[in-house]
Amino acid sequence: MSRPQSRRITFVIASLTGGGAERVISTMANAWVARGQTITIITMTGGERKPFYPLDSEVHLVPLGRSRPSQTPLHAIRNNLNRIRDLRRAIVSSQPDVVISFLDTTNVLTLLATRRLGFPVIVAEHTDPGLKRLHPAWQQLRRVLYPRANRLIVLSESARTYFPARIQQRTVILPNPIAIDPASETIANPDRPQIVGMGRFGPEKGFDQLIDSFALVAPEFPDWDLVIWGEGALRPDLEAQCDRLGLGTRVLLPGQTTRPHDALRTATIFALSSRREGFPMVLAEALACGTPAVAFAISSGVGDILRDQIDGLLVPSGDTTVFAQALASLMTDSNRRTTMAANAPHVLERFGVETIMDRWDALTEDIISSQ
Predict the structure, then answer these.
(1) Residue 103 — left, alpha, or beta (φ > 0 → left; ψ -120 to 50 → alpha)?
(2) Contact at 8 Å (CB) between 290 and 348?
(3) For residue 312, what are the β-bridge partners?
(4) pLDDT at 336 over 90
(5) Average pLDDT over residues 187-200
């Protein structure tokens, strides 16, 4: 595919901390810089913390410092008006050929900030909106403003059909690009086989469900451990759950890692226990690292990534007993794990960076040329 001419592309996102959407923007920004594009990333947070994921030095960061919480509804209105004003100024200053915003409330603010500016705007939903509750005010604003976007990007068919017809007409299903870091020279395999989970310690990730499932199989497999990488508000609850179930030495919560792919490479089985996901990048990354997986079938996006019985096992959402049985079936069968591990990296043929960024190039060129 021939590469489009150089363009100025401006991203908008709340922050560049260690989340899935943040990883996507970092991957896209780096890939586009490598393709000769001029990239600006505007964040609502300040510049006191460096981005969690590596960014090319050519990416221009504009931190607005407008992420402070609101104490009252009146403060919320005032804060959001200030965010819209500052965001509008930053977007104008970047002089973009196209603006790409990530995540629901930031998308709303971006559409308000770009009114009558004439810049084409793409908004992207990173989770399945049917599985995430949004405050009624933001919900209404989204329904009113999304038809004004040039395109809405979603990650799965179930996410697309959530929206009314007038929004679906502007909707494109475009999966996230998957980029895998090279293995560390110091990577070492653990002494014991590991089931690995990874993500923010919030209720949506369902790590309590994963611990419950592991508790069902732990007595039968005393040589196995569960390792959950991440951090968040639920750490005390997860630690208390492990103690209550007598798993204090069998479940490890080592925190966040700046080398997630090394952790996935050393896993024996990856476990996705989430209650909601749109397109779980960590599942795709685990497969790309050659790790078979067990996952709750919580959205069509999960089934798009994991091929049941080929590179992992899909389990009915929320059924921890069946999840435990699926784990046990792989824990007892090393030959099956080896076969699935060999199949798993084929996920990059569908969702690798070059493949997905070619689609983004075509989409942005179509939008810009139609202006």
Answers:
(1) left
(2) no
(3) 293, 308
(4) yes
(5) 90
Supply angle C-alpha 84, 88, 89, rounded to 5: 125
Contact 367, 150 (CB under 8 A): yes
CA torsion 315→334→285→326, rounded to 10°? 10
**92 pLDDT above the threshold of 70:** yes
> In this structure, are residues 201 and 232 in contact, taking their beta carbons and an 8 Å threshold?
yes
pLDDT score for 262: 93
What does the pLDDT read at residue 2?
56
pLDDT at 190: 86
Q: Which residues of 260-288 are buried (b: 16+ CB within 10 A; e: fewer)?
A: bbbbbbbbbbbbbbbbbbbbbbbbbbbbb
Q: In the chain, where are the structural domains located?
A: 8-177+352-369, 194-350
Q: When comparing pLDDT for 2 and 258, which is higher?
A: 258
Convert the pLDDT of each residue in 268-325 to its tens digit.
999 999 998 878 889 999 999 999 999 999 877 899 999 999 999 999 999 999 999 9
What is the rounded distance in angstroms from the CA atom of residue 186 to the CA atom of residue 45? 34
Common-topology check for domains 8-177+352-369 and 194-350:
yes
Residues 6+ apart with CB under 8 A from 309: none
From 3.30.70.20, 3.40.50.2000, 3.40.50.620, 3.40.605.10, which CATH number describes the 8-177+352-369 domain?
3.40.50.2000
How far, in Å, CA of 112 to CA of 134, rounded? 18
> Residue 273 in contact with residue 205, Cβ under 8 Å?
yes
CA distances from 62 to 66, 175, 249 (A): 12, 26, 44
Would the pLDDT of 239 be above 60?
Answer: yes
Question: Is 212 in contact with 320 (CB distance < 8 Å)?
Answer: yes
Q: In CATH terms, is domain 194-350 a member of 3.50.50.60?
A: no
